[in-house]
């Protein structure tokens, strides 16, 4: 089983930790997507549970990697090559000023809007990518209220490709598809 936890609000940390550990112990592949890892630093996830952010997943998209190389890697490599000896201090200060001033603004005001306009479903595809090799996502656990709008956008994007994982608020609310079908058949038989 492959499970994705959306825990963007970090309001149900204990539930996310316990449920992800339970699923991992049963052999499931578990990925927890958080808004900021910093708010989860004091928490210890079960071994094998992958914790990531939407920003990290989106950065895996090829156009974003190319943008990062163009704006950051090439200038850093240039400064390392040129900024030796007496030019070292000036080169580093110049690089910092460039990254803060020009590169950050270009990223925020040009590349991010263009990326979202040209590839509106890139984030949804990148969230789903770690599960693709093993047959796709089985369960989406929307762990808190702040994750609901993002979950709706992801599900809408996935629906165009025919991907429909089960969705629940916690493992206690999950109804496996076989059980759901049996319950529906029993309920209809009683009418």
Please, could you describe this protein's structure?
With 191 residues, the chain is α/β, with parallel strands linked by helices. 56% of the residues lie in helices and 12% in strands. The protein has seven helices and five strands. The chain has helices spanning 13-25, 54-58, 62-82, 88-118, 122-132, 148-159, 177-190, and strands at 2-7, 29-34, 50-53, 139-142, 166-168. It has a five-stranded parallel beta sheet with strand order 3-2-1-4-5, sandwiched between helices. β1, α1 (13-25) and β2 form a beta-alpha-beta unit. α3 (62-82) packs antiparallel against α4 (88-118) and α5 crosses α6 (148-159). It is elongated. The two termini are 34 Å apart. Mean pLDDT is 85; it is low at 179-191.
Output the keywords.
single chain, 191 residues, 5-stranded parallel beta sheet
Quick structural summary:
The protein has helices at residues 13-25, 54-58, 62-82, 88-118, 122-132, 148-159, 177-190; strands spanning 2-7, 29-34, 50-53, 139-142, 166-168. It is of the alpha/beta class.
Record the SSE blueprint:
Layout: E1 2-7, H1 13-25, E2 29-34, E3 50-53, H2 54-58, H3 62-82, H4 88-118, H5 122-132, E4 139-142, H6 148-159, E5 166-168, H7 177-190
Parallel strand pairs: 1-2, 1-4, 2-3, 4-5
Helix pairs in contact: 3-4, 5-6
- Helical coverage, percent range: 55-70%
Unreliable stretches covering 5 or more consecutive residues: 179-191
Structural class by secondary-structure content: alpha/beta
> How would you describe the shape?
elongated
For the largest beta sheet, what order do the strands appear in spatially? Answer: 3-2-1-4-5
For the termini, the CA-CA separation is 34 Å
Tell me the major beta sheet. Answer: 5 strands, parallel
Topology pattern, helix = H, strand = E: EHEEHHHHEHEH
- Rg (CA only): 21 Å
Percentage beta strand: 5-15%
Would you report the number of β strands?
5
Overall pLDDT, averaged? 85
Compute the number of helices. 7
């Amino acid at each position: 089983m492959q499970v994705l936890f959306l825990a963007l609000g970090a309001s149900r940390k204990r539930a996310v930790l316990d449920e992800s550990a339970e699923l991992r112990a049963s052999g499931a592949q578990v990925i927890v997507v958080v808004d900021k890892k910093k708010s989860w630093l004091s928490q210890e996830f079960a071994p094998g549970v992958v914790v990531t952010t939407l920003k990290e997943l989106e950065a895996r998209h090829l156009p974003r990697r190319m943008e990062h190389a163009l704006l950051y890697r090439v200038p850093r490599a240039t400064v390392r090559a040129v900024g030796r000896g007496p030019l070292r201090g000036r080169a580093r200060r110049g690089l910092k000023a460039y990254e803060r001033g020009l590169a950050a603004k270009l990223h925020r005001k040009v590349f991010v809007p263009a990326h979202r306009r040209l590839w509106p479903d890139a984030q949804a595809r990148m969230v789903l990518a770690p599960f693709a090799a093993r047959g796709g996502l089985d369960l989406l656990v929307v762990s808190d209220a702040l994750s609901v709008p993002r979950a709706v956008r992801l599900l809408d994007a996935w629906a165009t490709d025919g991907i429909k994982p089960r969705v629940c608020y916690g493992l206690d609310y999950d109804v496996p598809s076989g059980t759901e079908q049996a319950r529906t058949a029993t309920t209809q038989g009683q009418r």
